[in-house]
Amino acid sequence: MLAQRPPMGWNTWNTFGKDINEQLIRESADAFVDIGLKDAGYEYIVIDDCWSEYNRDPVTDRIVPHHEKFPNGMKVVADYVHSKGLKFGMYSCDGVRTCADYPGSFDHEFLDAQTFAEFGVDFLKYDNCYKPNSSHGPTLYHRMGMALRATGREILFSACNWGTEDVWSWIRSAGAHMYRSTGDIVDNPESYRKIALSQMDKLGYSAPGCFNDIDMLTVGMYGKGLVGSTGCNEADYRSQFSLWCMYSAPLMLGCDIRKIDEKTLKLVTNPELLRINQDAEARPPVILKSGWHEDCKVMFKFLENGEYALAFFNMGEKDAEMPAMFTDFGLTASSGYGLKLKNLFTGEDEGVYKEYFRTKVPAHDCAVYRAQTVRL
């Protein structure tokens, strides 16, 4: 079954928007392999909006790839991505038009799904613009879910309705494998923090087979993207990536991976953080305020094999001493157990702590530990 763990890949939209073409996809697929993203577990190369002609083919009624951007057609592009051992993704919309005003799939779901399958698509991002007022959102996603299955091809269904219509309560029934639960992210600190905070009480709906998608990562963009992308610093990117890992959210990179810097590459391929994100149990973390700081959150997450993750996020503008009281996670002082901690950014063992652990976290930054219970 698809999406037993959060999907990992790359999407064109955050950095490139409408400026996409066959050469970009080929070069990005090459980079995926050359810099080690594929080896780290990233597998989907996804083309977002603006890939088609402005109108459907007047004879076949099919969506047609843009003749200048993709002169050889999508099957050739998909074949190249597949030749790299990667999977190929595309975009459509449940409305009459896409968000950028290209042909949508409303009332063409089965024809479009078959077209995508013939292209060799492995992943479909399905957006939510320009749908008729008389339409019922859940029905439209059910319709495309059935259409994708009717093709006989295994296609990951990425539903993108921005968290409207209480999507978390019904989207699993539509056959989706991941579901957008928020509005669009942009590359600034306020955006990713707002998104992360908005989902803290909804993570229990996310589970293997259908994951809460809190949008594509802006990690490594440094302001080189769409409107609102003022950029973040390294601390913000550490926090954003770590939050997505603690949430078991899909990891869809949005930077230009052909030009990714060494620090960003090291972060997004950190094997310990990826172990948290890809944990088979995909349990949501317990999330609590840390100390007196409203902007500071401490998270504790059950992992497989009897391990845990302990993370501290300082979303404020000042450095903070952040405490974690183990009893808040179920480990009391009288239990006879403590926590052995390993710092996942430095790789250092921090020792064994009973009842309480405190760490200093700079503004916008985070600290993440792998934890094991040990008898004292």
Structure description:
- There is one protein chain.
- This protein is α/β, with parallel strands linked by helices and 376 residues long.
- It has two domains: 8-277, Aldolase class I (TIM Barrel); 286-375, Immunoglobulin-like (Sandwich).
- It has helices at 13-16, 22-34, 37-40, 74-83, 109-119, 137-150, 189-198, 234-246, 262-268, 271-277; strands spanning 8-11, 44-46, 87-93, 123-127, 156-159, 178-180, 211-213, 251-253, 286-290, 293-302, 307-314, 320-325, 337-343, 349-353, 356-361, 366-375.
- Helix 5 (109-119) packs across helix 6 (137-150), helix 7 (189-198) runs parallel beside helix 8 (234-246) and helix 8 packs parallel to helix 9.
- The radius of gyration is 21 Å and the shape is elongated.
- The chain starts with 7 loop residues before the first strand and ends with a strand.
- The mean pLDDT is 97.
